[in-house]
Structures are given as structure tokens and as C-alpha cells.
Specification:
Distance between the termini: 46 Å
Radius of gyration: 21 Å
Number of strands: 0
Helix content: 25-40%
Strand content: under 5%
Number of domains: 2
Length: 97
């Protein structure tokens, strides 16, 4: 019983810290930005190839930014933006300092 009560207390403290970090109001704010175009989470494109088969034939250099690929590369891979793969939804977004 003592262990369960302690676990609840620890989870509550952790939850409070997570909410503070999410609201950037705590003492220790994590500087975490998930940027799918940076290749940091999927450098080889294996995840994208598995779960986004429309882009599977693209070369690694254009896997994470198909909208920036030349038309010849898109055509060779069978990708038609706006038809077989949607146009980019967020444009011009930049990280605030």
C-alpha cells in the first residue's frame, strides 16, 4: 500500500511539471521542437517509406520535403503533388525565439 501511494504522489508531481513545461511557465522549460523536415527522427526515411507509401520511391534527399523536389524527381517517383500526395499544408512557419 505504501508503494502505491508513493507512486501516485510521484505521478502527480511529474504531471504538474509536464504541464508547466507545456505552458512554458516552469523553471525548467524543455526546448523541444519536432521538425519532420530536419531528418533527425528518421534520417534514412525508413519510417516515411513504411507509413507513407506514396513517397516510398523518392530518393533520400527529398523524402522529408517532397514539395522541394524538382518535377523530374517527383515524376520519376510517381508523385504528383495535389493528386497522389497532398500539397503542403503549413507554409512559412518559423520557430519563435
Amino acid at each position: 500500500m505504501c508503494g502505491v501511494a508513493r507512486l501516485r504522489c510521484v505521478r502527480l508531481r511529474c504531471r504538474r511539471m509536464m504541464w508547466q513545461n507545456a505552458g512554458q511557465a516552469g523553471l525548467d522549460q524543455w526546448d523541444f521542437v519536432l521538425d519532420p523536415t530536419s531528418k533527425s527522427q528518421d534520417p534514412t526515411g525508413a519510417y516515411v517509406r513504411q507509413w507513407v507509401p506514396e513517397l516510398a520511391a523518392l530518393p533520400d534527399a527529398h523524402m522529408h520535403k517532397p514539395w522541394a523536389a524538382p518535377e523530374s524527381v517527383l515524376e520519376a517517383a510517381g508523385v504528383r503533388l495535389g493528386d497522389t500526395y497532398p500539397h503542403r499544408v503549413v507554409q512559412g512557419a518559423r520557430r519563435e525565439a
